[in-house]
Fold these 2 entries.
Entry 1:
Amino acid sequence: MITLNTELPEVFAGFAEARQQGFLAMKDMKERGQGVVGLFCTYTPVEIFMAAGLLSVGLCATSDETIAEAEKTLPSNLCPLIKSSYGFAVSDKCPYMYFSDLVVGETTCDGKAKMYELLGEIKNVHVLQLPHTQNTPEAHTLWRSEIVRLKERVEKDFAVSISDEQLRAAIHRRNIERALLKELYELSVLTPPPMSGLDQLRVLFGAQFKFNHETKVAELRAAIDSIKAAYTAGKRPISESAPRILVTGCPLGGVTEKVVKVIEEAGAVVVAYENCTGAKQFDRQCPESGDPLTNIADFYLQIGCSIMTPNPNRLELLDRLCRQFKVQGVVEMTLQACHSYAVEAHTIKRHLEAQKIPYLQLETDYGTADIGQLATRAGAFVECLSVP
Ligand code: BJ8
């Protein structure tokens, strides 16, 4: 039974440690015959796996531990997320990769798409052919056929059959999770927000490693209620004068928490994440009535990632979040050699500056050598926002 806990550090710690704790939970479930699918991207429709009774887990690595190993095969001037994820696979150091019976990749950026070819030599890999535009009939047709192809691959590899009814039930369950994560991050519309951006990030990131739907829902509900109760009781962990920052760009987690830390150590607070760790994943609900495969295809295709061209949905979400969270400045985190986000950074900067919203781009990798430089740049940015 989950009880209300207004000691917020304990509430957040349960999510901060979720990735580590999930290793053992998954090992237990595997030993009992549970099928597991690993994935890399927000475009991957997890409802297919849920409907088939499978567990799914994110495989994007978040540390530089295996980059040297990866660079024996991959070029060094490649995005660290790709190198690190591949490095964990070839060195067999990621338990989630090890437990994955099927790994689902997708043709988002070129680096990932080509890495999956190499990954396919050591793992059972299926690659979704994602169109790079969203609003043509051809793109919808292609993407729906790719969702069908994935369903058929899952049915074949795991010897199951997936009904429309199971898909609708899976959409419903995933929508509940999305709604709860959105409710949680929307608590930070309050002034001052009831949690730091680092704590918010740890819940958003950690929730993906809670594998039991009912337990995850109960824990998220308890976390939301605990944060609200603490606020009502007068707890104010964040200063009212802290400048309110939205973070956009590449996905965050693990070592890249350093970006949030330098922003918050400079005296600001991160109130919202527009990226795949946050609102890009949880902002919308997948329609539950009608043909489930079409609903899933149409829902996922509208994700506003920089690999889409044009990419209007990112600007729409960004604008809405800036208004809703009363954002005073936007920080974009781009990973080194991520060309789509690096090029789109110019569009984002121009778009925000037209609305007089200050913008800072921080490029980083999975190392820690640049923390001083990041802190200097974040500090100068926050100082400008603090000037009345
Ligand atoms: S939907 S953001 S999870 S692709 S791996 S694009 S950082 S060069 S992660 Fe992503 Fe899906 Fe888009 Fe979201 Fe750049 Fe690196 Fe590529 Fe990356």
Entry 2:
Amino acid sequence: MSVKFAVQPSVSLVDAEARAEILANPAFGRVFTDHMVCASWTAADGWHDARLTGYAPVSIDPASVVLHYGQTVFEGLKAYRQPGGGVSLFRPERNAARMAASCHRLALPEFPEDAFVEACELLVIQDQAWVPGGEGASLYLRPFVWATEVGLGVRPSESALFQLIASPSGNYFSGPLRPVSLWLSQEYVRAAPGGTGAAKCGGNYAASLVAQQEAIENGCDQVVFLDAVEHRWLEELGGMNIFLVLDDGTLVTPEVSGTILEGITRDSIITLARELGHAVEERKVDVDEWRKGAVDGHVVEAFACGTAAVITPIGALRWPGGEAVAGTGEPGTVTMKLREALMDVQYGRTPDTHGWMHKVV
Ligand code: PLP
Ligand code: COI
């Protein structure tokens, strides 16, 4: 059954001057556009009552399943201003598929993939004036599905809500691009085999926060997790995948094994890097390869990647009493070359040879 959206634009919009001020200096995820998209689901009626409306708070029963058992998933994708003024989404069908997979893992109803893309298009069309134009800026779209059933029984909710909101965004890390430092979590893991690591569900992020807090307490920007079984293999950051660059130009990144999120940026980088002549290895990556390699010159660069983070250079890797700095600790040349190659596609500065850009307006 296809999902049909009603379009009911808001009559009270942020005025153009206030919007221009926001767009001139967007932070990350602080301000939201004039509209949102919602669709309801019940076991009896399936997806229904899909609509674009003014952005507004939702009223929620204190006994809603989501508040107690965390049955919720989300996505993150961006709309980019193109030369000539149009707006395009980057690989939205991949986010649609991933959200369906996350819903499946969380026993939530899968939001149809074509409806996901249509919802993104509708919101971007309606709020196109909110897509910033500056270097590195974009409109970040946040689709999510959450369990609305009221009751405390631990079982899959029989009702759910899909929502899509949008936020003009700049760099995820404030200020100009700089290498971030990572804290190697000793005590905490993000995901275990058979768990929810490959799903983009709220609980994964909630579980990462105390480790992220520890990273900050230790003077680092982000936490990096090791595997739950041997505590030896690199996994990912709280909200980003990770790559190392070796001295022969090879890129290595943890393989997709069920415990990390299969990043769309990660996948795009693998393609672009191979086209630029780099070998790319998706395999288990021993943290000691990094620690030792930073000293003996085997590992020359490291970077994190994700929709929000784009490609962010990594400076130091730290653990209690130790530190490894690959290369000079400054943004590496391969890192910056890949960042530019990716952004050139996203901002339409280079031909889209992979069909990644989804033109909306
Ligand atoms: N890993 C985690 C845990 C994330 O939250 C994200 C961000 O979405 C990523 C990796 C990168 O995924 P993507 O490149 O699809 O944004
Ligand atoms: C994204 O990159 O879209 C994410 O969801 C990660 C989060 C750190 C904002």
